[in-house]
Design goal:
heterodimer, A: 167 residues, mainly alpha, Helicase, Ruva Protein, domain 3, 6 helices, elongated, B: 193 residues, alpha/beta, Glutaredoxin, 2 domains, two-stranded antiparallel sheet
Chain lengths: 167, 193
């Protein structure tokens, strides 16, 4: 009797598991539109719409930006490459739409000046630290302390004399 | 101080002059670029009395001016020019679009006034749908490279600029027109000049 009941329970569990497995096999995830949002955002995050300054195109919520993203999707679907699409936007709306300006013409200064200043700044820092350490090193080499006691210091001699008098 | 002072004994070492020059030149260039950018971003829109440099507007197909696919401001000397910045994504632009078209229809036969629609940061299919929706017929084209909007230093859309027969900016309307009569009130004295 007990065995039969256990068998029945086992069969029931098996049935439920089988049913869920079969259901799971039938589930299909919603297809992403082609090209996918990820494809569009890959390009969009490299651009800024002039209307919404400081907001990358991929997260900008305005109608203008939505239209731009739709245009990117359209161009991707037409087989354009990322660079071709970005160039199209530059031609249409100017170079300021790019998150990273091109390394050509005056824009190349953006890539040259900051690293140059950084290197120069590090050089200044290095020289300053080196010049601060050299006198100390020179003293150490000469076996001198920072404030050497001098036997012929007139002021100290007077202090010594006063102390002796008071003893 | 004694002759043996370690401070006096240490040789004075300065930065080589070429390093100093590079650092100062770099800093000055950086500051100039920053100042220039800040000044540019703080500039107000073009105002009455300003002279407007000439610009070239490439026109949408079907919106040619005297059968030309582009129009230059310098070619319009002797005419009153109305430059309207708009975009298909701009709700207030829709409010004034019928008034602008009606005003254009009123002035077009006289030949003394030219309306130019400058489509700002827009996508062409939506722009064309907008033009069809409001039956716009005056010369209109995209602001390629946002060059024209930068020339007028616009802050948004819609904005409309009125240039007199001598090429001087005489009035700017920031925001939409509330009626066609408002456009006539600005244009009529300019036409009579």
């Amino acid at each position: 009797m007990i065995v039969r009941t256990r068998l029945k329970r086992f069969a029931l569990v098996l049935l439920v598991v089988t049913a869920f497995t079969a259901l799971g096999a039938g589930v299909a995830f919603a297809q992403q539109p082609t090209p996918s949002d990820n494809d569009v955002n890959r390009i969009a995050r490299q651009m800024y719409c002039p209307v919404c300054e400081n907001t990358p195109l991929d997260v900008c919520a305005t109608q203008a930006c939505a239209q731009w993203r739709a245009l990117i999707r359209e161009k991707l679907a037409a087989g354009w490459t990322d660079d071709q699409i970005k160039q199209y936007f530059v031609d249409q709306y100017g170079v300021r739409v790019l998150a990273a300006p091109p390394s050509q013409g005056w824009y190349s200064l953006i890539y040259i000046i900051p690293p140059l200043l950084l290197v120069a700044g590090l050089a200044v820092l290095y020289r300053a630290l080196a010049s601060m350490r050299k006198p100390l090193a020179a003293q150490a080499a000469a076996g001198r302390t920072v404030a050497p006691a001098s036997d012929d210091d007139e002021y100290l001699q007077r202090v010594e004399d006063e102390l002796k008098k008071n003893k | 101080m004694s002759e043996n002072s370690p401070i006096e004994a240490a040789p004075r070492r300065g930065m080589p002059i070429w390093v100093q020059l590079i650092v100062w030149a770099g800093l000055i260039i950086l500051l100039v670029v920053l100042a220039f950018g800040l000044a540019k971003s703080q500039q107000a829109s073009a105002a009455a009395g300003d002279s407007i440099s000439t610009f070239n507007l490439t026109l949408f197909d079907g919106y040619a001016y005297q059968k030309q696919s582009s129009v230059a401001l310098s070619d319009l000397k002797g005419k009153v020019v109305v430059v309207n910045f708009w975009a298909s994504w701009c709700q207030p632009c829709e409010q004034e679009a019928p008034d602008l078209e009606a005003a254009w229809k009123a002035y077009e036969p006289g030949g003394q006034v030219v309306f130019l629609g400058v489509d700002y940061v827009d996508t062409e299919p939506e722009a064309r749908a907008y033009l069809n929706k409001f039956g716009i017929t005056y010369p209109t084209g995209p602001d390629l490279g946002t060059r024209i909007s930068q020339l007028f230093r616009i802050k948004g859309v819609p904005e409309t600029y009125f240039i007199d027969k001598n090429g001087k900016l005489v009035y700017s309307q920031i925001g939409p027109f509330v009626s066609e009569a408002q456009i006539h009130a600005i244009l009529d004295p300019l036409v009579k000049e």
